[in-house]
Amino acid sequence: MLPVNATLRSQVSRLALEIHALQTNLAEMQAELVRLQHQLDAVTYPVLSLPPEIVSGIFLHCLPAEALGTDGIDNTEAPLLVSHVCSQWRRIALSTPALWANLDIDVSCRNLYAAEIAKAWLGRARSSPLSVKIQGQITELGDSAQFFETLRRHAPGIKSLEISVYVDDLARLPQDIDFSLLRDLNIRLIHDDEFPDVFEAFSGAQALSQIVLNQMSPSFIALPWQQLQKFTGKSYTIPQCIEVLSLMPNLTECAFSVFSLGSLAIPGVFSHSGIRTFTLFRSSSDWGQEADSAEILEFVTFPNLESFELLDVDSKDGEALDSFFQRYRQPLKRLIIRPLDATQLVMTSEPLWQPQLTELEIWYPETLFARIFFENLGEQPDYVSGLQKLTFYCRRDPSEERHEELVARAAEAIVSRGKLESEAQLRVFHAFSIPSNYLAPPPRSALATFRRLAEEGMDIYIGTEDGRNNYINMKDYTQE
């Protein structure tokens, strides 16, 4: 019996040794397979051989340049897209804080997971300065407490905050929240209720310099008004505009969209010596009314104004504009009009006869405007005598100058102007056409003139607004 046992033990031992040898060989083969696969991947996918810091930089260039619509949490865009390609890219993406420094979330679309998304996203940003955009009703979230806590925890790192929320949402922000890094603030309140007490959450934001308030009176929010330098008020009444200007003595840039309401309560004209740039623009209120009035110009004056923009305001307020220019004696350097149906007013206004005006931009010029403007430009040496940059935007409208006709007028006027005794010569001429189904090329003679000017060093662009068609570089697109 013993010999049989000895034989079995010998066989077991031999098989065990053979198995061990095979397992060793298998492990070596598996290691070699991994090595070879890594080499193959590097050949098939060269990007995997790049150093992580290079890949990280590429990821940053993949971030969307513009907002993605109502919600920025998109699996088809960076950073989520690059983090889902492979495990290596995911590790690199998660170790690149700057990829996660911009959070744009619509909590209404992410009702079940908004707090979890915000916590994970901002956590990945680590110590990077944050830009946060929040839309929707936070208080309706099942985990709204966690969302507010996440916001409170990361508030010290937020440099830019844009919120479009309900009154209750803003009221629930912790009063002791630390917005010490916050520089830009944009608030739009969805008016589902009356304003309660004054909102204090941003009163300690000592770095704050720029703010946008949409349909929100300055009376309802405590801010470090004295330090603010740039303010935009959307859908404001004239008394609200005056209130804002009186609160901010260090303001240098200001923009309003104004309702023609409440002006009768304004005593006299309010003067603000700090304003260098002033803009009037159009916006729509939540109740559908357009804020497009220039009536505010009757009640303000800015002695040191340098740049003035009128963007889509109502043309019936031409008298207000005239009144503003009559009181205003400091020469403008920059004037932008889009569009204002006040041809004769603009042609005879003070700024266009001042040598300090160096930049003029006109959108959708009427045919009469274009004819008078270019006649004066080519014949009157004192007319916009200091102008260095001239820009036009054209569209196909029966009452407005066509792009090709404007370019023809401009070429003739600029050549004539060069023969006048003028202190300054035009350095930049841009004539943009809003893209349409049909765009006629400018006359050949006009393009020849501008090509010669471009060769002499003048900055010339003649073509579509999107930059795809520059006729200066497209010699085949000409007409007699």
UniProtKB/TrEMBL annotation:
<protein>
    <recommendedName>
        <fullName>F-box domain-containing protein</fullName>
    </recommendedName>
</protein>
<feature type="coiled-coil region">
    <location>
        <begin position="12"/>
        <end position="39"/>
    </location>
</feature>
<keyword id="KW-0175">Coiled coil</keyword>
